[in-house]
Amino acid sequence: MSGALFLALQHDSGRMERGGRRRSSEAEDAEKGRMKRTIIKDWKTRLSYFLQNSSNSTKIKSKKVGKHRTYFRPSPEEAQLWSEAFDELLANKYGLAAFRAFLKSEFCEENIEFWLACEDFKKTKSPQKLTSKAKKIYNDFIEKEAPKEINIDFQTKNMIAQNIQEATHTCFSAAQKRVYSLMENNSYPRFLESEFYQELCKKTHITRTAQGT
Predict the structure, then answer these.
(1) Helix (H) or strand (E) holding 71
(2) pTM
(3) Which has the closest alpha carbon to 113: 123, 101, 125?
(4) What sections of 75-172 are H helices per DSSP?
C-alpha cells in the first residue's frame, strides 16, 4: 500500500514538474514574443516617421543668397541601386539616412556614426582641430566603456591610443576598415532584406520636379 502510494506521489510529482517546465517555457516564449512585438512596433514607428518626413521636400539654403536646393525622396529605381554595392548606399544622402534609421532600429548605430566621424576627421586640415577631433572620437567610440564603444580588438585600441598622441589622418584607418567590413557583411545584407528597405523600394507618391529657386 505504501509502495503504491509512493509511486502515485512520484508520478504526480513528475507530472507537476513537467507541467511547471512547460508553463515556464510558455512564459518565456510569451515574454520573447512581447519583446519582439515591442521592437517591431518601435521599428515601424521609426520607419513611419522617416518616410513621413522624407515625403516632404526639404529646402536647404546654398551659399548664394536667395538660392535653394530641393531634395526629394528617391524613386524606387534609385533605392534599388543601393543593393548593387554598399558604397552606393553610403554615397547617397537619403540612402545613408535610411541605413542609419535601420541601424537605430537594431541598436547598433554606433558603427555608422564612427565611420562618419572618421570620414569627417580625414577631411580636417587644421592640426589643432585634428588633435581635438581625434581625442573626441577616441573618448566617444574607442576607449573602454565609451558611450558608443565599437567592437574592435584590443591591439587596435592600443594602437589608436598611441597614435592620437601625435594625431595624423590615418589614426583610425584600421578601426574604420574593421567597422566598414562589419557593416558591409552583416548590417548591409539585413538592411536589403528588411521591410524597411523594401518599403522604400515600392512606396513613393512624390511627384518629382526640377530643382527650383
Answers:
(1) strand 68-71
(2) 0.66
(3) 101
(4) 76-81, 86-91, 93-105, 110-122, 127-137, 154-163
Burial 165-200, CB ≥16 within 10 A → b, else e: eebeeebbebbbebbbebbeeebbeebbebebbebb
**Type of residue at 29:** D
What are 149-165's pLDDT values in tens digits? 999 999 999 999 999 99
| Whole-number Å distance between alpha carbons of 186 and 180 | 10
C-alpha cell at 48: 513611419
Q: CB 15: neighbour CB atoms within 10 A?
A: 10
Question: Is-contact 191 197, C-beta < 8 A?
Answer: yes
* pLDDT value of position 186: 95
The three grid cell numbers given for residue 88, joined into one nine-digit string? 552606393
**pLDDT one-digit tens code per residue, 116-138:** 999 999 999 999 999 999 999 99
- With a CB cutoff of 8 Å and minimum separation 6, the contacts of 99 are 89, 90, 112, 187, 188, 191
> Grid coordinates 591610443 are at which residue?
161
- What's the one-letter identity of residue 108? C
